[in-house]
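Reproducibility note. Readers wishing to regenerate the assembly model reported in the main text can use the exact inputs given here. Chain order matters: entities are listed in the order in which they were concatenated for prediction.
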Amino acid sequence: MARFLLRRLGLAVFVVLVVTLLVAWAVRLSGDPAVMLAEGSTVTEQDLQNIRKALGLDRSFAAQYAGFVGGMVTGDMGNSFMGGRAVGGMVRQALPLTLMLAGLSLLVSLALSIPLGIHAAVHRGGVADQAIRIVSLVGLSFPNFWLAIMLVLVFSIALGWLPPSGADGVSAVIMPVMTMGVILTATNVRLVRTAMLETLSAQYITVARSKGLGEAVVLYKHALTNCAIPLITYIGLQFGGLIGGVVVVERVFNWPGMGSLAFDAVASRDYPVLQAVVTVLAVVIVLVNLLIDLVYGVVDPRVRAE
Amino acid sequence: MRVRALLSATSLAALLAIGTPANAAGTLTVAQSQDPNNWDPIATFLIAWGSVASNFFEGLVLRDEALNLKPGLATSWEVLDDGMRLRFKLRQGVTFHNGEPFNAEAVKFTMERLLGPEGAKGPQQSNYTSIGSVEVLDPYTVDIVLKRPDPVMITKLAGYGAMIVPPKYVAEKGAQGFAAAPVGTGPFRMTGYENKVSATLEPNAGYWGGAPKLDNVIYRFIVEPNTQVAELQAGRIDIASNVPIALTSTIAGHKDLNLVSITGPTVTVARFNTHTGPTTDERVRKAIIMAVDREAIVKQILQGHAKSVVSFQSTLSFGFDPAQKAVPFDPAGAKKLLAEAKVPAGTVVSLDFPSNDTTFREVAQAVAGYLSAVGLKGGVKPHELNVFTNDIIPNGKTGEMFRMGWGGWTFDYDNTAYLMYHTGEHWNPYDKDPALDAMLEGQRKIADRGEREKALQKIANFVADHALELPLYNINTIYGVNKRVKNLVAPPDNRLRLMGVTVD
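Running the prediction on these inputs yields the following structure tokens for the assembly.
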């Protein structure tokens, strides 16, 4: 187990390093932050050079990259090109907001998809099963930004129940979480249903039933535990996509998280912010996957034994 | 896992605590797209900065809603030594929001900071390089000595980089501290700022011009214009400052909202590639200008929220020539000119533009349609904004035409014309004309206002005669305003003056 963990950890560090190199390289492919900063003013080439020098852009790529990675390791993420704010502070402010959105969306989707998926599997081919499958297909076809706008139209403008944007108060969390939760549920409910169907045909379920156990115990204790492995694997895979979806949803709801930071940083070629955001999110995704490897051991004794 | 749960729980608790009630009486909430991130006057050139910071910073000179210059922190000024020395009498008894006194030393500090190494890191310095030195004559008299004539200097002193800052406070807080918690002399002071979320202002009770009537002003930074309009409809903001044309009818039809559409600072034109391709021929450029019905574009695509222009400036600009006539829409004449220039039918004329400008996308398609109607093959080519402004334009990689939107808070044609037409400028990849260069340089040396205006008008006519661009329109700034806001005068420079504004 220790060797396994160590290997995974080494791999994780490698992945994050590759990500930092890719982002540092890609962000410099086009555009010039100095021109973005000076746009609208009567700049001369000399002014631009002064600005570039002040931003440290006159150094070689290797020096800039080394500075960035070194800074990430020591915890000093540098200052934003656009306004000079400390990037570390910006990320500390934004990251919890993004993780909260992602985490709550995941929770909502699990709370919906597990009972629905089980119900569909148990009553396979029934009216409920058909309905769940059709609704989930519809859910799968929604682009997240469209769903977000529809929610705003209904709950903010027509009904006036929820604020259309911002991150102030519990009411502001509901629509962003609903947007992502609904779309996640659409995929997860199918996953639970399929995994459940497979499990329910296994012999130990027949044994459990013939022992006279209640249906609830059979489903939630015996069947669901055995469905957990594929479900957890899939959630791990989903997490990256979930973070990607957050970028769009944050923009629509003006949610001041990592997505909003990334969006602005791309537009203005704010290298330090973009590099930090991408790296931190990469670390989060890698950590979540590492965590899932550990959770396997908890839910499946066979993994622990290995 | 437990740590994460805890993290979420604490964030949630924090969120619960900061819920703010919408639409309190006396509180004005304004939404704008951009957070300037840095409130230091020397570090920015964003209209988004000016619209907020004009409430707490002041220059020696101010500009009112009608863009007239008027005394600010200086009560009067005179122009000496043939325009090379500007003498300011300063307002007495003014203090900064932190209690620091305003005087000639503060002016000297501000200017030297702007022109020194601190200023070199930002985009403002280049606007003020004509200043040679600042001389303090007595605590309330100060001279700004120029090293070369700069007729726009007085106007520039009402603008961005020349906002007067408190010397002691800046020294104490450092650049970063000042950028996050600015202190000025204006009618409001900043009391709270959360990056990318909001800025809160409270009235400066001791303001020399009298206390403002509002209890609070909150600026919220909402990137998506559609989201701003949703907030406005939900009654959670009072002013949406970036209303997209597609949503104007929604606001106009709402019982609690007013649509305010006024002349904006930005003029949009399609410039020609005069260096390569068919548009090197002046006749072809003239034909293209004749082929496009600009009035129809303004009426139908922009739904009247714009004015067509005859040169690269609005009617408010210094240098605008009321006698200059638009080239009339004349497709038959265009065809004749193209035949004369022996341009084969189906010659491609492509128009490049930044992809984030969704309004211009429709305009570009209309232009392409008009060009196709006279036998050319009109094309549209979107680029990512940053690539467009940093690579495609300056490196001359555009098609036959490219979109350029420009305007400045100075409302002086020099600010556009010099940067667009002078040889070797960043935004001018194609045009090289010694005669035009001489005119552009010459007007900067004219101290007499009337003479200089004539020189600028001559430049505008020269550019039109040589068909260097297809003039399009001056687009309006469109605000959506809740009817509970009273006495709001929307200015063309996007800097809302909130002194007399009240909110029911």
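We highlight two features of this model. The radius of gyration of chain A is 24 Å. Residues 215-252 of chain A form the longest helix (38 residues).
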